[in-house]
Amino acid sequence: MADAFGVEVVTPERALLAGPATAVMLRTSDGNLTVLDGHTPLIGDVVPGEVRVEQEDGTVVHLAVHGGFIQVDTRPGAAEGLAEGTGPIGDLSTKVTVLAGVAELAEEIDVERATRSKETLEGRLSELRGSGSRGGGEAGADEGAEIDLELLDVTTSLDRANLRLEIAGAQQPV
Predict the structure, then answer these.
(1) Does 39 lie in the same domain as 116?
(2) Which residues contact 73 (CB under 8 A, 6 or more apart)?
């Protein structure tokens, strides 16, 4: 059995998860990352995707994280209050903190709402892509910039809806 360490997943609204874990798996801009007890200290980015937290009893908590940051801290007492023990290397203890602007536990995702959102956003995306006629001149350039910004906003929102549906689906029995 792997050694436990402390994990916190927090958003501006609340702490989604705080307690002991044996592994944290997520994706950064450098690739996939698995953190175990005694991991090298680091600070990095978290790209939108699934964060999996393996708990001591073997259960896995799935979260949809829409970007953020990770910190792995191994100073003595770093995981105090989150996990027992002192870690595998001397008196070091490991604490993983994931800070996200938007994140959700898989079981809290409203699948019907995410599905409706996805359908609405796909329709709007088709409309925006169909309005590719951009006139010349200053007014046309301003209109084109507004369409580009809305296209970016709709695409980002659609990515969030798809991620929510993907992560919620990970919870359903196969």
Answers:
(1) no
(2) 41, 94, 95, 96, 97
d(CA 160, CA 117): 10
CA distance 36 to 92: 13
Q: Is residue 19 located within the same domain as residue 65?
A: yes
Q: Which of 79, 108, 137 is the last residue of a domain?
A: 108
Across the 174 residues of the chain, what is the mean pLDDT of every consecutive 10-residue run?
86 95 96 94 96 95 96 84 58 85 94 93 88 52 73 90 88 45
- CA 74 to CA 38: how far, in whole Å? 7
Q: Which two tokens stand for residue 95?
A: 């604490």
Residues 119 and 139 in one domain: yes
In the chain, the number of structural domains is 2
Q: Which domain holds residue 75?
A: 5-108
pTM: 0.78
Distance CA 25, CA 124 (A): 34
The predicted structure's pLDDT at residue 173: 42
Q: What are phi and psi of 101, to 5 degrees?
A: -70, -40
Lookup: tokens for 15: 């702490």
